[in-house]
């Protein structure tokens, strides 16, 4: 089955050059966090992947990242999407560089894959070859290690994770028990880059099998 790629749209972006001290306290910013870049995206997991990439390309930290309940199909407004991400850095130039990395990642290298023509059934089997500070912290691993970032609808996520873990020398370091805020599930697996790729491939294959034969067990 050939799967069509689903990229995320970055819906809105704003930069705060010099954040107000009261707002800085709410985000528990460090003294060097003087500027913020805020964005919303139509796909949360792509947004989180893009945030991690930003920490590798600019002097920025992820200070806030949350998914919205029920997903982009039930967004609170036309610019809300499925998640919000906030980067903090020492200057407007740095956070702008971070946002540039977010947009490039979301538009070119991170994507879901559609399992049906309507694109209502999809999975995320993305390999991060070298993590930045954000996903490293989320996964509890050292910066620069590889990750398989695996997401799917609830049943598919559980079945696919089992197949992925068995397919390669990887370890499940974070489990997103279904339902998440967006009613998906999945996990983060770590190992060598090749092992993470093998796990992601097994995850995808297992979910394609479910899509093709959902009741045959």
TrEMBL record:
The lineage of its organism: Bacteria, Bacillati, Bacillota, Bacilli, Bacillales. Pfam families: BMC. NCBIfam families: microcomp_EutL, PRK15405.1. Coiled coil: none annotated. Keywords: Bacterial microcompartment. GO terms for cellular component: bacterial microcompartment. Its main location: other. The keyword Mitochondrion does not apply. This is Microcompartment protein EutL. It is found in: Bacterial microcompartment. The keyword Transferase does not apply. GO terms for molecular function: structural molecule activity. Residues 1-111, 112-217 form the BMC circularly permuted domain.
């Amino acid at each position: 089955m050939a799967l069509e790629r689903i990229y995320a749209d970055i819906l809105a972006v704003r930069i705060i050059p010099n954040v107000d001290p009261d707002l800085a306290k709410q985000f528990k910013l460090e003294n060097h966090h003087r500027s913020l870049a805020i964005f919303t995206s139509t796909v949360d997991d792509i947004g989180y992947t893009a945030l991690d990439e930003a920490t590798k390309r600019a002097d920025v930290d992820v200070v806030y990242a949350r998914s919205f309940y029920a997903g982009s199909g039930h967004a609170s407004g036309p610019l809300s999407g499925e998640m919000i991400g906030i980067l903090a850095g020492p200057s407007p130039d740095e956070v702008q560089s971070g946002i540039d990395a977010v947009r490039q990642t979301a538009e070119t290298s991170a994507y879901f894959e559609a399992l049906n023509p309507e694109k209502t059934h999809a999975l995320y089997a993305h390999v991060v070859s070298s993590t930045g500070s954000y996903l490293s912290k989320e996964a509890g691993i050292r910066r620069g290690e590889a990750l398989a970032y695996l997401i799917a609808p609830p049943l598919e996520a559980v079945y696919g994770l089992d197949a992925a873990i068995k397919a390669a020398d990887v370890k499940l370091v974070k489990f997103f028990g279904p339902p998440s805020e967006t009613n998906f599930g999945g996990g983060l697996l770590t190992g060598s880059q090749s092992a993470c790729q093998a796990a992601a491939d097994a995850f995808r294959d297992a979910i394609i099998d479910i899509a093709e034969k959902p009741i045959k067990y």
